[in-house]
Design a protein that fits this description.
The longest helix has 18 residues. The strands form three sheets. This protein has an eight-stranded mixed beta sheet with strand order 1-10-9-2-3-6-5-4. Strands 7-8 form a two-stranded antiparallel sheet. By secondary structure, the chain is α/β, with parallel strands linked by helices. A hairpin with a 6-residue loop joins strand 5 and strand 6. The chain is about 50% helix and about 10% strand.
């Protein structure tokens, strides 16, 4: 049965996802089985305490999708009761706990009140008297405010099931404006489900959050966490559409640039080819067709920034490489070799492969040329090449006692000589 409490103007018989679908039914049954399973930790809690699975796991089950989320709300418990049962507190003063065996997250039912700027500016009430419905009302979107009991009862006070059926991302109430992270989360969910519409009133509240300066209060690490997830979704350009549409993108950094249509196309192609995060970040930062984004815009990990820097730094030599490989020079191996060495293929072949992926997605390199460059990179950094270089260096030291600069020249020439023996050289137009 679906419980939809009266008092908010919602009809009891709201449209809902088809619970008879085998995939939906199986996933819901899996959740209730987990809730009902013999658990030495939850069994230590008093009998009056109720545990519900909430949020993403229920939402995804109703959509018939797999989910890695396993979040639970505990109603009627105190912090002391949770600790005594063996749950591990996440923070000293925050009513969220980890199960010591499964490491799933269990949170006391709570209400929240805005008390300061940013996503940390909240005070909360996690008294045992807080109801499940009260906890669900504090959440961001209706589709994330559905709970299920161990008996299989679905609790849906905000009509989230109706919005799932209709494909709508809708905020729950005016408290949506109190947490600026919700703008980023909304954009991420829009990127995950590009066919879902954002309710017009929710779009207006996003603009309100931006106009109130709340987005600028977010710490860079939190922004990156949501943007990174959004970039890895089905339609990363939808993430950008939402953030640009409400003005949040422009607020993230004083030098933020609009994302060009060429970059949007490349990002969508990256998603279709399941490209890794490093590639998608590099595409976004390079912003081909527009102005380069400041690399300090997002608190990205070193691997992402490193690839983005390579994309910018190596483009200047790319024209000579393409010309050499497509039209042929008297010695067209040399510019190709020099560019490969600048890309550090002998040590960073995996990064080089990602670099080529970026250029291919941008339309700078044809797939055939990417394949040939990858083959040449492996040739230049092969064990045979490294052996010849080592022998040349050893010979130079034994004969001349050469200094570092001389040895560098000798080893480069030795590697280049080996490189030229690859059968690809000679005019081979693509």
């Amino acid at each position: 049965m679906v419980k939809n409490p009266r008092g908010r103007g919602y009809p009891i018989d709201v449209p809902k996802p088809d619970l008879s679908t085998p995939s939906v039914r199986a996933r819901l049954e899996d959740i209730t089985a987990r809730l009902s399973a013999d658990d030495p930790i939850t069994q230590r809690l008093p009998n009056a305490i109720a545990i519900y699975c909430v949020g993403g796991a229920v939402r995804d089950a109703l959509l018939g999708h797999p989910s890695s989320d396993r979040d639970y709300v505990v109603v009627g418990a105190s912090i002391e009761a949770m600790v005594q049962a063996g749950f591990q507190p996440v923070g000293a003063d925050f009513p969220v706990f980890l199960h010591p065996i499964t490491h799933d997250e269990y949170a006391l039912a709570r209400t929240e009140r805005k008390s300061g700027k940013g996503y940390k500016g909240f005070t909360f009430n996690a008294d045992p008297s807080v109801r499940l419905e009260d906890d669900l009302q504090r959440r961001d979107l209706t589709i994330n405010a559905i709970a299920i009991s161990r008996q299989g009862e679905l609790i849906d006070p905000t009509r989230g099931m109706e919005d799932l059926r209709m494909g709508i991302l809708r905020h729950i109430g005016p408290a949506f404006t109190e947490d600026p992270v919700r703008v980023l989360r909304l954009a991420r969910f829009a990127a995950r489900w590009p066919d879902f519409d954002i309710a017009p009133e929710t779009q207006l509240l996003c603009k309100t959050i931006v106009n109130q300066g709340e987005v600028t209060a977010l710490v860079a690490e939190r922004v990156w966490q949501e943007v990174a997830k959004g970039l890895m979704e089905t339609s990363p350009t939808r993430l950008l559409d939402v953030l640009e549409g409400c003005g949040a993108w422009a607020e993230l950094h004083p030098r933020t640039q609009p994302v060009h249509a060429d970059t949007r196309h490349a990002l969508d192609q990256a998603a279709k080819s399941n490209a890794p995060l490093d590639v998608r970040y590099a595409l976004l930062m390079d912003n081909r067709g527009g102005q380069t984004q400041p690399l300090e815009l997002l608190k990205a990990p070193k691997s992402c920034i490193d690839l983005a820097q390579q994309v910018l730094a190596r483009r200047s030599g790319l024209t000579a490489v393409v010309t050499a490989m497509t039209h042929g020079h008297t010695d067209h191996a040399t510019p190709v070799f020099d560019w490969l060495m600048a890309c550090d293929v002998s040590r960073r072949i995996e990064r080089f492969a990602l670099l080529l992926t970026v250029y291919e997605l941008q339309g700078v390199l044809a797939p055939e040329l990417v394949q040939r460059l990858m083959e040449l990179a492996h040739w230049a950094s092969s064990p045979q090449a490294n052996h010849i270089v080592a022998m040349a260096a050893q010979d130079a030291l034994q004969k001349n006692g050469a200094d570092g600069s001389t040895i560098a020249t000798i080893t480069r020439d030795a590697r280049l000589g080996f490189f030229k023996t690859h059968p690809a050289f000679g005019p081979h137009p693509i």
